[in-house]
Amino acid sequence: MGKGARTVWQALVLSFALVIAAALLLPASAEAAKSKPPENDGPPMRFVVVRSSSLGCEPLCPEWISAEGAITPATPAAFKKFLKKLGDKRLPVIVTSPGGRVEAALELGRILRARKLDIGVGLTRFVECAPEQKGCQLDPARRGIYRGALYSAGAYCASACSMMFAGGVRRHVGQWAYMGVHQVTSYVTQQKITYRETYRVVKGKRKTLSRKVVRRKTVGSYTTTKMGKAFNARMVAYLKEMGVKQTMYDVGQSTPVSEMRQLTPVEMLNMNLITSLDATDVLVSIEVCKSATPAGNCSLAPDIKPQPGSYPKHVVPEDGGMWFVVVRSSEAGCEPNCPEWISAEGDIDAKALSRLEATLKALGGRKLPLVVSSRGGDVETAMAMGRMIRKARLDVAVGGTIFGGCRPRDEGCKAPAKSPLFGNAVSYEGLCLNDCTLLLAAGKTRLVGYGARFGWYLRAKPPASVLAAYLDEMGVQAHSFDDAAPIKVVYTDQTRLKAAGLLTRNGSVDLLIDGGVCRLIPIPANCRLAIQGEFARKQ
C-alpha cells in the first residue's frame, strides 16, 4: 500500500513539471510548406458566364464559362461556389491560364470531371464591358451573363493548367492556342518550431499530456524540382484517373522549369490529353444550337419562351381532294426556330372549304403561309376559299412539298398526331392551274417561283362576269388572266404577272419557308420556336 502511495505522489508532482522541446522541421514538398510561395502568375482565376454575340444565333445561343487567370489555393472553392449558382447548367469551360498551384489544379480537374464539363483553351473577347473593367455594370435582366466571342490566337494553358485541363470530358486546344508543360516546382520552407510540452511519468514511462507551439522561426527556404516517389505516383494516378497517358507527365518532368515545352496537336492526341483535333470552337459555335437536338450549353434568351406545340389534325382525303397538313422545315441548321407552312395539294373539291376552315381554326390564329399545288377544281369553292384566305391574311405561294418521309396520301403513311410533318417546299414541284389561281389571288403575299407551272386553260376559264367581282374584291386586275395560258414560269413571266397585279413580288416559295427566314428581324409569323429537343425523334 505504501509503495502504491509513493507512485501516485510521484505522478502528481511530475505532472506539473514543464519541459521545453525544440525541433527543426524540413518539409519535403510544397504541401508541407507553411509559408506562401512567391505569387508571380498574375491575377487569380475568375469565372463568368458568357453568351455568344455571333450574328444569327439568337434566340438560342451557346453559352460558356470563361476561366482566365492564375490557379491559386482559393480557386477550387471559388469554382465550386460559382457552379453552385449555375445549378444544373452544364457549360463548357474556356480557359486561359499561366498555371499556378498543382494541388489546386488537381482539385479543379476533379471538379470538372465530377460535373461532366467540357473544356477548351481559348480567350473571350467581350463585346460590351469586361469583368475586370472598372465601372462595368450589367443590366440586372442579363442575370450576370456577359456577351462575347471566342478566339484562340494568344490563348494558352501552361504549367499546372494542363492538370486542370485533363479533367474535362471533351478537351480541345486547336492549332492557334498554346498548351505548355514543364517540371513541377516545390517551394520548401525551413522552420524552427519551439513546443511547450506537459507530461508525467507513470511506472517509469513518460506520458505526454499536452503539446503547444510557442514559437515559429523561419530559418531558410528554397525551391526544388526533385519530387519524391509518393508525389510522382500521385500525379501519375491522377492522369490515369482522367484517362490521360503518363507520357504527358514524363514530358513535363523532362523539361527544365526555366523553359516551357509546347505540345503539338498530334502529341496531345497521342497522350489522350485532347479528345480530338477539333478546335475549341466546336464547343461554343452557334452551329451547336442549330441541330434537331441542340447542345446542352444552348440557352434561350431570357425574354424568349418556346411557343405552344399543338398542331391541327392532318386532313388527307383519300379521293384526291385537297389535303391540308402543317409542315415544318427539315432544313439542316434551322432548329429550334424553324418556319412552318400549310401544304395544300390536290384537287379543289366541294369539301376543301370545310377542311381549310377546320385547319385554320385549329391553328388558333397562327398565320402560316399556304404552299399550294393543284390542278384546280370547283370555281365557287375556290372563290370561297380565297375569301377565307384573305380574311385570315395568309401568304400564298405555288410550290410542291417534298416530305422527309412518306407523302400524306401514300399507302400506309400515318402522320403523327398533334405534330407537324417534316419536309421542304420547292417551286419547280408546284403547279397552280385553272381555279387554283383564284387561291393565289387571295394571298397577302403572292409568289410563283421559277419552274412552277401556272395558268388557266382556255376551255376551263369561266366567263369574265364570274371572275370580275372576285378579282376586284382581291385587288387583282381582271386582265391578269387575259393571257394566262399554262406556262412554266421564268423570270420574265414573274415580271409580267407582277406588273399585272397577280403577284406581289418576284421570287420563289423559299422567301416564305427557307430555313434562314427565321433569323430575320423581325422574325416572320410562321417561325415557331420549339422546346429544346422536341422534334429530335422525328427527324
Task: Describe, in plain words, how this protein is organized in 3D.
There is one protein chain. This protein is α/β, with parallel strands linked by helices and 539 residues long. It has two domains: 46-185 and 230-289, 2-enoyl-CoA Hydratase, Chain A, domain 1, CATH 3.90.226; 323-538, 2-enoyl-CoA Hydratase, Chain A, domain 1. 24% of the residues lie in helices and 26% in strands. The protein is elongated and about 130 Å long. The N and C termini lie far apart (96 Å).
Q: Which oligomerization state do the chains in this entry correspond to?
A: single chain
Proportion of helical residues: 10-25%
Instruction: State the CATH topology of the largest domain.
Output: 2-enoyl-CoA Hydratase, Chain A, domain 1
Please tell me the overall pLDDT: 82
Structural class: alpha/beta
Q: State the end-to-end CA separation.
A: 96 Å
* CATH superfamily descriptor of the largest domain: 2-enoyl-CoA Hydratase, Chain A, domain 1
Anisotropy-based shape: elongated
Query: Can you count the helices?
Result: 14
At the first level of CATH, what is the class of the largest domain?
Alpha Beta
